[in-house]
Amino acid sequence: MTDSEIIGLILQGDRDKFRILVEKYQQMVFHTCMGFVHNRDDADDLTQDVLIQAYQSLHAFKGAASFSTWIYRIAINASLNKVRKSTGNHILQRLDILFGAGKEKEIALPLLDAENPENILIRQEHKDWVKKALDSLPEKQRTAIVLSNYDDLSQKEIAEIMDTTEGAVEALIQRAKSNLRKKLTSSHK
């Protein structure tokens, strides 16, 4: 059964069929959200929000693009909105941690086998640098690089999702890679 056929049945009242779309697209939505928010719990919450929004907006799906393109757009918009909203909260979170209000939320890093704690810390710092560099990219570059690297989509698919040309996507990805390289090399100096 195609996505369009499933959507038709859902719109005719067979709401249980939405489960098929959830099973098919939930992981994809999660990966996309994770590429923007870098936190499993936030990505899980966003994934649920995106799926609920898709269900509630299903009547507005016109089929001009594929369902996967449509749900990618919802996931990207929800992720960017979450990032925009949480940017202002980072300062408050850091102040809470600094002054002790956030101590109950501290998380210990697990030691895997006999792994050196210094190596764990270094690896975490590298992840943090990459996340900060990714977060500092302009939205279109960040979207293109996330869809390319986290979701492993082709430039053609990304162009459809972003409603632009393949050439524009290629340029966005190249600029994003260049900007990431600059940011990451300058942060290591």
How would you describe what is shown here?
The chain is mostly helical and 189 residues long. Helix content is 74%, strand content 0%. It has helices at 3-11, 18-37, 40-57, 67-98, 117-135, 139-149, 155-162, 166-187. The longest helix is centred in the middle third of the chain and has 32 residues, at 67-98. The N and C termini lie far apart (55 Å). The relative contact order is 0.10.
Identify the notable features of this structure and list them briefly.
single chain, 189 residues, mainly alpha, Rna Polymerase Sigma Factor, Chain: A, Arc Repressor Mutant, subunit A, 2 domains, 8 helices, globular
**Helix content range:** over 70%
Q: What's the CATH topology label of the largest domain?
A: Rna Polymerase Sigma Factor, Chain: A
Order of helices and strands: HHHHHHHH
**Quick one: how many beta strands?**
0
CATH class of the largest domain: Mainly Alpha
- Give start-end ranges of low-pLDDT stretches: 90-113
- How far the N terminus sits from the C terminus, by CA atoms, comes to 55 Å
- Structural class of the helix and strand makeup? mainly alpha
Give me the number of helical elements.
Answer: 8
Largest sheet: none
From the coordinates shown, what is the CATH architecture of the largest domain? Orthogonal Bundle
Number of domains: 2
Beta-strand share of residues: under 5%
Mean pLDDT: 82
